[in-house]
């Protein structure tokens, strides 16, 4: 079963990205059997931080692909990217045009592509093209 984990910031700037997460989940459902995401899977969690951490590791460690929204700095996203690296999961990073992306993110060995986008339509088109290549 092919699965993808779509993630990005939840707190601080997370609310700004809710429409992005919903779009990403819809696009990914065309290409993957299972789509796991910051929204809805981890949004508004009432778990203890330890339970949240444990569930995150358990849920995402066997995915086929990570898609990370990296336009805004986030400790949690950095940790999830490291989990992807440790589990040898390919990563696609998404960033709004003009956003500064951390050199640590850009240097991660299993980073497959950075997709820079201007708006939802641009993001959708570029991600679909990359997922078509990934699915082959």
Strand order of the largest sheet: 2-1-3-4-5
Largest sheet composition: 5 strands, parallel
The share of residues in extended strands comes to: 15-25%
SSE order in H/E notation? EHEHHEHEHEH
What topology does this entry show?
Blueprint: E1 3-7, H1 14-28, E2 34-37, H2 38-42, H3 49-60, E3 65-69, H4 75-86, E4 91-96, H5 103-107, E5 111-117, H6 120-135
Parallel strand pairs: 1-2, 1-3, 3-4, 4-5
Helix pairs in contact: 1-6
Brief write-up:
This protein is of the alpha/beta class. The protein has helices at residues 14-28, 38-42, 49-60, 75-86, 103-107, 120-135; strands at 3-7, 34-37, 65-69, 91-96, 111-117.
What does this structure look like?
The protein has 136 residues and is an alpha/beta fold. The protein has a single domain (3-135), classed as Rossmann fold (3-Layer(aba) Sandwich), CATH 3.40.50. 48% of the residues lie in helices and 20% in strands. The protein is built from six helices and five strands, in the order βαβααβαβαβα. The protein has helices spanning 14-28, 38-42, 49-60, 75-86, 103-107, 120-135; strands at residues 3-7, 34-37, 65-69, 91-96, 111-117.
């Amino acid at each position: 079963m092919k699965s993808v984990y779509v993630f990005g910031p939840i707190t601080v700037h997370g609310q700004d990205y809710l429409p992005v997460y919903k779009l990403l989940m819809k696009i990914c459902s065309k290409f993957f059997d299972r789509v796991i995401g910051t929204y809805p899977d981890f949004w508004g969690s009432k778990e203890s931080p330890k339970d949240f951490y444990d569930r995150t590791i358990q849920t995402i460690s066997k995915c086929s692909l990570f898609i990370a929204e990296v336009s805004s700095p986030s400790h949690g996203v950095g940790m999830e990217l490291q989990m992807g690296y440790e589990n040898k999961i390919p990563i696609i990073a998404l960033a709004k045009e003009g956003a500064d992306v951390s050199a640590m993110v850009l240097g991660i060995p299993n980073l497959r592509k950075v997709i820079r986008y201007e708006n939802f339509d641009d993001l959708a088109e570029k991600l679909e093209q990359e997922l078509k290549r990934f699915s082959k």
